[in-house]
Each structure stands twice: as C-alpha cells, then as structure tokens.
Amino acid sequence: MDKLRSALSDPATGRPCLGSARFDRAQFTSSADFRGAEIRGDACFNKAIIRKTADFEVSVIRGDAMFMGAVIGRNASFREICGTTWFEWAKIGGDARFAFSKFGGDVGFGDATIGGDAWFEQARIEGVASLSGTRIGGHVRFEDAEIEGAVALSRAVIGGNASFTGARIGGETWLSGAQVSGHLNLRRATLDRATQLGPLVCAGPLDVSETVFGTAVTIEAATPIVNCRRARWASTAALRLRYASVDLSGAVLEYPVTIAAQSQPFTADGRTLTEPGLTNPRVQIESLRGVDAAHLVLADTDLTTCRFAGTVHLDQLRLEGLYPLDTAPTGLRWHGLRLVRWTPRRVLAEEHHWRASRHQGAADWTAAPTGEEVLTPAALAPVYRQLRKAFEDGKHEPGAADFYYGEMEMRRHAHDIPGSERFLLTVYWALSGYGLRASRALLWLLAAMTVTVLAMMVWGLPKDDPQPMSSGTLARNSITLTTDTPDPVNPTGPYRHRLSSERFEKSLRVVINSVAFRSSGQDLTTAGTYTEMASRLTEPVLLGLAVLAVRGRVKR
After folding, report:
1. Structure confidence by residue, pLDDT tens digits, 308-328
2. Nearest to 28 by CA among 7, 9, 4, 6
3. Judging by DSSP bridges, how do beta strands 179-180 and 157-158 pair with one another?
4. Is the pTM higher than 0.90?
C-alpha cells in the first residue's frame, strides 16, 4: 500500500492523487489506507473486502464514494466526499467515522450493518442522510450536524443511543419503525420541515428539550420518558405516545398541541412494532409548569403526579377521555390521638407534597421528590381555582366540585388571609364540607333535630296544655263573654317522667315544622319558644346545605 501511495503522489505537492479509485470486488488483506489522498473522480469499492480498516481520513473524494455491499473488518473513516456516498448493504465491523466531514450529496447506509458507532458530529450534509434498515451495534451521533435534506432512520435498529443534539435538519425526519435500545436525543435540534417522527420504539428517554419544530408535526413513540422542557412548536403538533412520562415544563405552544395515549402497539410497514422492556402503556404527564395551556389538549393521560403550579391559562386546558388525578388517602387513620377520615376527592400532587411535609399525616400523603419545592396553600389555591373553572367550562360540574373543595381547603390553611375569614371557612367545612358533603350536613341536621326534640320534651312543652277559660258580664239584656288562655306552666317533676311518647310526638311536630320554616302552633314555654326560634334559624340552613351538596354532584 505504501508503494501505491508513492506511485500515485502528485510531484508538486507530494499528496497522493488519483483520477478515480476503482476497487470493486477487490480484497485487501490488511487496511485500505488512503489518508490525505485526493481522488478527483469516484471511489468505487462495491463488494470489496477490507480485512482491517478503510482509512480515508483527511482525504478528499471529488466524485461519489461507492461502498455498496463492501465488507470492512474494522473502522471506516472519511472526511470529505463531494458527491454521493453509498454504503447500502455494507458491513462495517467497527465504527463508521464521519465526524467533521463534508458531504456534497446524499449519504446512504440502507440495510447496512455497523458493529460499532456511527459518528456524524458536526458533519455537513447537503443531501439526505439515510440509515434506513441499518443495524448499528453502538451509538448514532449527529451532534451539531447540518443536514440540508432529510434524515431517514426508518426500520433502523440501534443498539445504543441516537443523538441529534444541536443538529439542524432542513428536510423530513423519517423514523418509522425505528428501534433504539438507548435514548433518542433531539435536544436543541432545529427541525425545519419535519412532519412525522415515528412510529418508533425507544427503550430509553426521548428528549426533545429546547427543540424547535418549524412545521406541523406528528410524534408517535413508545418510550418510558418524553422530555419536552422548553421545546417550541411553531405550528400544530400531535404526540401519540405509549408508556411515556411526559415533562412539558417551559414548553412554548404557539398553536394547538395534543398529547394522547395510544392504546394499541404501533405498526409500521404493515408490521407491529415490538416493545421490549416497556410494561405499562399509560401516558403520564409529569409537569406543565411554565406552559401556556390555552393551546394544550390532553387525551387519556394520567395526571396523578402532574405538577400544575405555574401553568399559564390553566383554566383553558382541555381534557379528553380518561384523565385520572391523584386522590386523598381513604379509610380511617390515627393521627396522634385523633381518629381521622380524609374526605374522598381528587387532589393535586402539590397538595400531597405539602401535606406530607407537615408533621401530621405525613405517612398518608406522597412526599415531594428530592429537590422539588413544596408549595404553600396560598400558592395552590389559585391552581385549584383555575382547574375548577376549566371543568365548569367543560360542563363537568361534579369534577369541578372536587377542585372547589381543594381551593377552599387551601384558603382555610393559607396564612395570607384574615383569621376571621379562616374561622368562617372552618365552620363552613365542619358543617357541610364547603357545601359539598351532604352526609355531613344531614348528620348535623339530625343531631340538631335530636337536641331540639330533647330540649322541647324536657323544657319546651308546658306541664299541661293550657285550657281556654271564658268569663262573662250580664248587663241589662246583653252578655259580654271573654275567653282567655292562661300562660303555659313549666313542666315539673323528674326528667324521666317528661320523656314520654306523648311529649315526644308533640316535640317532633314542632321540630319538623321548624325545619320547613313553619310554626307548629303548639303552646310552648318561654324556653321552648326560644328553642323553636333557634331551630327555625339553624335547621333549615343545614337542610339547604345538604340539598346544595346533592345538587353539586348531579348538576350537568
């Protein structure tokens, strides 16, 4: 090989120079060393066998580089190819190194096999970069690459990571049927005309943080994590996902963006994509902080751990299908010396974090992840308020009721409101669960009626019903009659004698009429009169709170 390089050297520069290099079907028992060579025509190595490395480092190929069906035992290194580069059906045992390279045309690795990594860092490709059907044992790296045409990894099988960090892709991005064993990293990439990403399967995270999507795009992926932090969609977008935990913190949505769960496995080219290592197909939203939710639609997504605080226009968020949220702990629990039963309702993950941070009840609520800020009730009340409005605008009144309850709970515990208002909220909560717990209001009503009945039996009803007495005056030929009812006489004797069935029936009539704002017409003692007045003031209110709670749960 050294003799060949010496014979082909340019006498003026000493640099190896060839018109064309045609080695189709040639066999190299060692390496093919063309370092620093200038090939002014094509370099043809179709079906060539190179036992070791194909080294074109610092070389220039003015024409096309043709390695279709070639077999390279170790690494293949290239620097500048002015024409088209073809590696279809080629087999490279080591790495394919094209870092910092320049390609004047297309780069094709269709159905090739690369045992190591495919390096394209900071490469400049004026045509299409195609790795469709390629099997790569290691990583694919396109960091900071500039590709004027499309990038195609359809049906590609990548044993490691696929990284396009900082890359700019001017054309389409075809990933249909791609399978990535590591992560797929599109962080800080610019996709000017990409309309379709996937369907693909990625065993690791799919990272599109700070990525700019210049046109309407559909992303279909089965992956455990989708990181969209500060991503920017300059047009409409649809994300159809499986298994994914999605973080949208700080994402910029200029047009409607839909995130939906895909119930069935994806198909590509008529075949169903396998999903090794992925178990739970639900799609979980982790965070919407900093997102303008006016353009966001979530369909069949799990919001159990979603952090809503800091979302802009949260009241305009659209939720479709099934969207479970976290719930309060259920059942009876001992908190210190008190037996507590939490009211069943939907709650935010941030409320879980806040309640878990308190000494009492920490075991029942989910603690915040390490490093996560625990928000105060004053910060959570507006979040509940906006979600309530979103549900009300969507005509989902029963769902809005839970968020109203959460809003009132946060206001009751907030330290930025007057103590008198917090006291009123506490009374409102205790009597009827903010007008949302009919059972609580009915229990208080039953207790109030029981106390009133007992008070009437013991002190309210007179000893005997007063009997009217008539008296008359005879003057000449006329008689004047006067009827008078004596004042009720307070009951006397032991209390057990006053608790009779007759007095109970009379007391019950008085109380039932009081609940309906009616007067019973029963003669009462002074204590009974005041008891009836108190009953007519409080018990109808409790009945009204119970009716309001039922109405809130069945209202359309």
Report:
1. 999 999 999 999 988 899 888
2. 4
3. parallel
4. no
